[in-house]
Design the sequence.
């Protein structure tokens, strides 16, 4: 394990020495009030690293972890069930910036994603996706604020108990927005 982390550190230093690298990601935290004294804290940590080939093209990978909980209530049987899940995800992408401005760039990320849910017997599942995520970059000297808005593509959900579904389409609602910060080397 020590060799893995040392190799990862050497690779990060070598990549960051080049002036076309960006490093950042997304962090999220929320509190869900189910009524009463029990609140659930939901968090996610999604670091990201990328490399700009030129002004138009870049490639990167976002990976990370999250923790969430869900309480369901069945009125017919007057029962309440709590499902806690943790996730690990990996999302490599290629980015094409098609509109350049002095302060704002508009881009589209094309890639695939993998998210594994684990934690309880009800939460072991995999989510696969492939598609496009449009976004906007606000350039602030060495830092950039990034917003991804929506998703266009295919998603497939596989649960360990055999339950699965897939979705083709686009999702541009207000719940599919992510915000992040990059440091440009």
Sequence:
């Amino acid at each position: 394990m020590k060799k893995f982390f040392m190799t990862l550190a050497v690779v990060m230093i070598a990549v960051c020495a080049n002036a076309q690298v960006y490093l950042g990601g997304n962090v999220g935290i929320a509190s869900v009030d189910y009524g009463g004294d029990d609140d659930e804290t939901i968090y996610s940590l999604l670091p990201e690293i990328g490399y700009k080939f030129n002004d138009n093209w870049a490639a990167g990978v976002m990976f990370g972890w999250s923790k969430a909980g869900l309480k369901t209530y069945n009125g017919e049987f007057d029962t309440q069930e709590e499902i806690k899940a943790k996730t690990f995800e990996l999302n490599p992408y290629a980015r094409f910036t098609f509109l350049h401005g002095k302060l704002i760039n508009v881009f589209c990320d094309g890639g695939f994603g993998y998210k594994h849910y684990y934690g309880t017997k009800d939460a072991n599942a995999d989510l696969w996706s492939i598609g496009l995520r449009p976004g906007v970059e606000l350039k602030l000297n060495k830092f950039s604020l990034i917003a991804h808005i929506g998703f266009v593509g295919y998603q497939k959900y596989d649960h360990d108990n055999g339950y699965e579904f897939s979705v083709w389409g686009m999702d541009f609602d207000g719940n599919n927005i992510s915000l992040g910060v990059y440091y440009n080397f």
Summary: The chain has a mean pLDDT of 82. The CA atoms of residues 109 and 164 lie 26 Å apart.
